[in-house]
Write a structure and sequence with these properties.
The complex is a heterodimer of chains A (about 170) and B (about 400). With about 170 residues, chain A is of the alpha/beta class. Chain A has one domain: NADH:ubiquinone oxidoreductase Nqo5 subunit (Beta Polymerase, domain 2). In chain A, about 20% of the residues lie in helices and about 25% in strands. The N and C termini of chain A lie far apart (about 55 Å). By secondary structure, chain B is mainly alpha-helical. Chain B has two domains: about 60 residues, no CATH class; about 300 residues, Cytochrome-c3 Hydrogenase, chain B. Chain B has 19 helices and six strands. Chain B has a three-stranded antiparallel sheet. In chain B, strand 5 and strand 6 form a beta hairpin. In chain B, helix 5 packs antiparallel against helix 6, helix 6 runs antiparallel to helix 18 and helix 8 runs antiparallel to helix 13. The longest helix of chain B has 29 residues. The relative contact order of chain B is 0.17. Classes of the chains: A alpha/beta (about 170), B mainly alpha (about 400). Chain A: This is NADH-quinone oxidoreductase subunit C. Chain A: Keywords: Cell membrane, Membrane, NAD, Quinone, Translocase, Transport. Chain A: It comes from Flavobacterium flabelliforme. Chain A: It is found in: Cell membrane.
């Protein structure tokens, strides 16, 4: 029998209660939010539970929402996949914008090692317990985190290019 | 010598100082890359060597990082396609189509069957081109140059087909939301037929040269083997995972663009060594050829090559110059003023190297709020230090080749 989303929801609800919330089906992916403190236990549970078997970490990345309240300014997004049942889920963990930290899952999924490094590199999210949390794509000397929304894409001092006229700014101003 | 290359506090430098071999020899450090002809791309590996054996490796990547994800947050959707080209530039049509399909999923656009089949054809051509490059260069790295010359002209033929379809060869920027920018010319189909007629013989010859070749077998069997469990833990997908015996293929697991209409098998290896990866890619080329033939046979009548979505699909140029409606649509699309829903989408396609995923977050504005590329190379390359541990230096080169690490995809 195929794995139904309601089963996942009930199981998680039973064990983690209020720590897992906001279940919804977004297009073809079932997704929910997890509090940052419980992320490792939830992912470990999803991986090892004999019925759920989310054994493959597809993707891990960060998103920055500077306009949110301070506790929800960064989100780490995990995509897990169960190949036996061919079921994908998306987990979001919101973390604080002032001191973004979350526990690492690199001891659960080896593949998350570099993905967490990449997220650290671009967003400055500290993955507590990561074996080698240092920059991966940018150079080590860099002090800013370039994927944060406040980081400008191009040198703001340039006057020869005005992106407003070419439909290239997000809002037209 | 090693002190010149590494700071003295580096752990390898320390280890060299501490380790006393009985015969008086000492460990050494070798910098493989950043620009080394045998690595086929720009990435550095600092190797700690005992004679010719690799004890440890430390990869450094990011030499051609071009901040695609940041650029994508500041450009309308159409201007993101050329960025996807430059990820896995050996099979850019797959990246392009993956991106269009992500947007079509976002906008709920149904692409006509014929356009889907055309996409399948071009994606399979891209896969063949990708595998030609990987396998023939693996041959070159093991010392067999001839096979490379036999099959590489067919990569050129594939590029000529791309040229007929979209005008470009390597970085194709092919397609539009909802289909293709123009219908395929009769010349494109003619070139495709010639390719289908001529390529199998060359590929068979290439296979014959390698598969039972004593030298090739000696160089590849049991070299860089990785077990299925390890491969999955490291996030392997695509031919590299299938070489270890796991039959996960996005085309089968989550069919897109009508892949469910075609009959093909997913070739798997057993031991996950370099030889198995080579054989899996070889077999996949045959499957791709069969898919292309099936697509041509089943191709629906008519000349649909795009969905009817005037809000997102650029109108023909003649109309832009003569009709008001078209001019308005043209202007709005080019300026990126078309509305998009607020949503979060993840769309995977089977790229040349594995699951290529697009995670797109939109906030209703003209650009992506966040676009993350799940790049298969980036994820599986982290297994490389473990795979080459204890191997000879020459094996490390062969393993790197067989993983088909493309620097563009690695660094994005």
């Amino acid at each position: 029998m195929a794995l139904e989303t309601i089963q996942i929801q009930e199981k998680l609800n039973q064990i983690f209660g209020e720590n897992v919330s906001n279940y919804n089906q977004e297009k073809d992916i079932f997704s929910f939010e997890v509090t940052a403190d419980t992320i490792t236990s939830v992912i470990l549970f999803l991986k090892n539970d004999p019925e759920l078997r989310f054994h493959f970490l597809t993707d891990l990345c960060g998103v920055h929402y500077p306009d949110n309240e301070v506790n929800r300014q960064f989100v780490v997004v995990y995509h897990l996949h169960n190949w036996y049942e061919n079921k994908r889920i998306k987990i979001k963990a919101f973390i604080s914008g002032e001191n973004p930290q979350i526990n690492t899952i690199s001891n659960i999924f080896l593949s998350s090692n570099w993905m967490e490094r990449e997220t650290f590199d671009f967003y400055g999210i500290d993955f507590i317990g990561h074996p080698q949390l240092k920059r991966i794509l940018n150079m080590d000397e860099m002090i800013s985190f370039p994927m944060r929304k406040e980081f400008p894409m191009e040198d703001s001092g340039r006057t020869d290019k005005d992106d407003r006229f070419f439909g290239r700014t997000t809002d037209n101003y | 010598m090693s002190e010149l290359l590494l700071p003295p506090e580096h752990r390898y430098a320390k280890r060299i100082k501490e380790q006393q071999n009985e015969d008086g020899s000492e460990l050494s450090i070798l910098n493989l890359g950043p620009t080394h002809p045998a690595t086929h791309g720009i990435f550095q590996n600092i190797l700690l060597m005992d004679g010719e054996r690799i004890l440890e490796a430390e990869p450094t990547i990011g030499y051609i990082h071009r901040a695609f994800e940041k650029i994508a947050e500041n450009r309308p959707f159409y201007q993101v396609t050329p960025l996807t080209d430059r990820m896995n530039y050996c099979s850019s049509p797959i990246n392009n189509m993956g991106w269009w399909m992500t947007l079509e999923k976002l906008l709920d656009i149904e692409v006509p069957k014929r356009a889907q089949y055309l996409r399948v054809i071009v994606m399979e051509l891209a896969r063949i081109a990708d595998h030609i490059i990987c396998n023939s260069i693996l041959g070159v790295d093991t010392g067999a140059y001839t096979g490379f010359l036999y099959v590489f002209q067919f990569r050129e033929k594939i590029y000529e087909i791309y040229e007929e379809i979209c005008g470009a060869r390597l970085t194709t920027n092919m397609g539009r939301i909802g289909g293709f920018e123009r219908d395929w010319s009769p010349e494109a189909f003619k070139k495709l037929d010639i390719f289908l007629a001529e390529f199998p013989a060359a590929w068979q010859e290439f296979e014959n040269l390698f598969v039972r070749n004593r030298i090739f077998i000696d160089r590849t069997v049991n070299v860089g083997a990785i077990s299925a469990e390890k491969a999955m833990a490291y996030g392997f997908t695509g031919p590299n995972l299938r070489g270890s015996g796991v039959d996960y293929d996005v085309r089968v697991a989550q069919p897109y663009s009508s892949y469910e209409d075609f009959d093909f098998i997913v070739p798997v290896g057993k031991s996950g060594d370099t030889y198995d990866r080579f054989c899996v890619r070889n077999a996949e080329v045959w499957e791709s050829l069969s898919i292309i033939r099936q697509a041509l046979d089943k191709m629906p009548e008519g000349n649909d090559f795009h969905a009817d979505v005037p809000d997102y699909y650029l109108p023909p140029k003649e109309d832009v110059y003569t009709s008001m409606e078209s001019l308005i649509y043209h202007f709005k699309i080019v300026m990126g003023e078309v509305p998009v829903p607020v949503a979060e989408i993840y769309h995977p396609v089977e790229g040349g190297n594995g699951e290529l995923g697009f995670y797109l977050v939109t906030d209703g504005s003209r650009t992506a709020y966040r676009l993350h590329f799940r790049r298969p190379c980036f994820i599986y390359y982290q297994a490389y230090p473990e795979m080459i541990k204890g191997a000879l230096l020459s094996d490390a080169i062969v393993i790197l080749s067989s993983l088909n690490v493309i620097a563009g995809e690695l660094d994005a």
